[in-house]
Amino acid sequence: MSTFEQLKTEAQRIADVKYAAAVLNWDMEINMPANGVEARSRQLATLSGIAFEMGTSEKFSNLLQAAKDDASLDALQKRNVELLWSDFQKAKKFSQEFVEEMSMTVSQTFAAWEHAKKANDFSLYAPQLEKMIALKRKQAEIIGYEKHPYDALLDDYEPGMTAAVLDEYFNTVRSGLKPLLEKIKAQPQVDNSCLHQHFDRQQQWDYSIAILKQMGYDFGAGRQDISTHPFTTNFAATDVRVTTRINENDMTDCLFSAIHEGGHALYEQGLLTGNYGLPLGEAASLSVHESQSRLWENNVGRALPFWKYNFEIAQKTFPAQFSAISQHTLYKAINRVEPSFIRTQADELTYHFHIMIRFDIEKALMEGTLNVTDLKNYWNEQYQKYLGITPADDATGILQDVHWSHGLLGYFPTYSLGSAYAAQYYRQAEQDIPGLNDLIAKGDNAPLLTWLREKIHVHGRFYNSQDLCEKVTGEKLNFNHFLKYAEDKYSGIYGF
Amino acid sequence: MSTFEQLKTEAQRIADVKYAAAVLNWDMEINMPANGVEARSRQLATLSGIAFEMGTSEKFSNLLQAAKDDASLDALQKRNVELLWSDFQKAKKFSQEFVEEMSMTVSQTFAAWEHAKKANDFSLYAPQLEKMIALKRKQAEIIGYEKHPYDALLDDYEPGMTAAVLDEYFNTVRSGLKPLLEKIKAQPQVDNSCLHQHFDRQQQWDYSIAILKQMGYDFGAGRQDISTHPFTTNFAATDVRVTTRINENDMTDCLFSAIHEGGHALYEQGLLTGNYGLPLGEAASLSVHESQSRLWENNVGRALPFWKYNFEIAQKTFPAQFSAISQHTLYKAINRVEPSFIRTQADELTYHFHIMIRFDIEKALMEGTLNVTDLKNYWNEQYQKYLGITPADDATGILQDVHWSHGLLGYFPTYSLGSAYAAQYYRQAEQDIPGLNDLIAKGDNAPLLTWLREKIHVHGRFYNSQDLCEKVTGEKLNFNHFLKYAEDKYSGIYGF
Predict the structure, then answer these.
(1) Predicted TM-score of the model (pTM)
(2) ipTM of the modeled complex
(3) Are B208 and B357 in the same domain?
(4) Which of A13, A231, A346, B176 has its CB 3.0 to 4.6 Å from that of B483, i.e. a possible disulfide?
(5) Could A239 and B32 be called an inter-chain contact, meaning their C-beta atoms sit closer than 8 Å?
């Protein structure tokens, strides 16, 4: 066996263990009976311990070294080895003790968050969150960074991204969106009461399945289930599962969750199976992932061409609710802009403010310029400043997100970046695919999916998000594409 | 940490990996999309490779040795160590090469079996089955045995069981059941047409759930799903799952599958969680397992007391089908005896002949006194001899069972033993629990479950099946208890 084949064999064995853990996690969310949680937690801990051992072992190190020194590799193999090598170097920095401390701290912080959220009291969470932040700062020191400790954390989700780049990015976001939001707020509000009727659960479910099929999601390599928080998970490009949720008083919850997760899933289903367990068989970054979900959810699913085709189907599916309204009424309703407290329910414009606030907080926490004890006040001030609203309580404010309790600092920015990439990619797709919007208006999404597959999915982690964007669109990430998209859309809807 | 605690920690880690594989297997049967099979197979192979490595490692060997030499262990710890030690000694006998060869041969033999069964042609399967038999004989040599190579295989499913004991056992089965079957065949056949009407799927499902609850199956520590072949699986005593299947033209399929698997599951749910991953937290043997499923299915579920309580519920659930029939008609219908081709559909009397035939075959294959090429003829002759019928084709004859393709030789006898144990245990329970049948006739199964828990479940693997039987009933396995039970039941039904 060649050095590369030997390395690949072991990398795939490690991936097997990680994907096995992913199956156990999926099962825990979807199927597991209540009493199973204790045994499942220990099974997951054991699997991740084994994967960590294998991924930092001398055996793996030797295989990596041999492949690295092998001059006969082709360009793709070489890139796989490079990425495996840098993952390995990073993983090696952590002691077993640190990994265990982090794992324990996550369990405790998550439990404290759950408890505090139920009690609607941030003070019950703060002491444990402080421990988590301290540990994340320690983690940043272990990883190392050039300019800002936050850079070390960002790298986990968004290779190559830095606090400095994000500072500039969010300045553009802020200066671009603030006046647009003001313009919208000055207009009469859009009526979205058509969405808040009673919608039958089974009909919503069937409708979401039909839409996933229309998008090109392959049910031979996936399935949809119900969960409290919609998510996508994958155990191979040939087994990529999505979930949605159903709100009987709001049909958009199920529909747009399905489209959003479907966008994530199309990315995973489009990865090359020949690279199973290797970096080129993995998604490039979280922002690229989010660009796929957001592109389908917003640039496709909340745009006019999609509804030209789907409005009649929606009317047939929900005749009692939609037979008396027009296509434009529905289109406007699903695009209503309104400052609100909960990030996951925000419209696509104010969404960026939610992220910006979290970015500022995370950066300051990592710098040490903001203390956990001041977090709640800071949060509320920022919501007042940017969205003109102040959360009535902790559960709808500072306690709403699970991320920090899991130690996921540096994750939030990818949500905003993803939407920006989505707008830029969609604009490029419009240029590359003749009559794209007419095709979508006829229910034909295949050319768009083919384009995404060729331009983005097949590359796996070959390019990082910024280089990929430049390769596909000819320029680095440029928030003006989102701005232009938003101005066009909302000027049409709000009439300014 | 004490020597025992250290050993326990590692044994539980190994169990974590095995249970993780069990989750992946369950998911493969129940949820997995079609295209996922290749990745899943390799994930399963990796997990079992890791579990094998861990379970035969020097680290584990040292931990075992230290605990074995530790004089301070209590009786339960000591028994755990003894059993872990003997499992380890057995596992150590196999080389990695043998394990891989067996795994590959199973895949190939299973594929050949599937193909041959579809084509209804044993000759397509025979060459591959020969390879499997040769490998099983090799396995028996590796394990070692005193008298008969079959003993080495039996030990996997039924510790302490030998071909000699089974010879004697099946002689008793043969001589006892043959005249009883003749007596039944001399009587007019029971009418079971009431079972072969159309039964709504959802109603059958709901009914099976209600029956599982009535048995005491804990849905907080389990769930029921649908699969082609009903089975029970467990990932801890706190997560024990069952499946059933639904035949719209036969309500007994779903009902008795649910009760049978429910019986298996009650055993697993009754194992001590404190012994998770240790022998005393595992079932004693397959025959003890089958004694639990059969006891609930037959000694409870096909007996009069159960139907005294459940007939009215069945009538309410299926009024169109059952409102015009009597309790006794239904009782007789579900107990009709009739020689038939398919083991899994056999009544509880002729079932033993199906097993006896397979036992004779397996023993002869291991001895080398029967060749695979003669297998089909031998099979057909035996069916004619004992049941008076000859399979019309291979699919309903020699190709019906999956077991041999998986290398599971030595497994079949436990099905017959299980029924025999069930009769003996139930007779004992009647003696130990005052008014047991009256309680069941009132729908109160709790005293029976409590008895099973105390007498059987909590012991795990502490006793082997034969010693357990002696401890609980005061005598070794005695087929006369089954015979007496069968004579009482069928004389009442067939009137002789």
Answers:
(1) 0.95
(2) 0.94
(3) yes
(4) B176
(5) yes
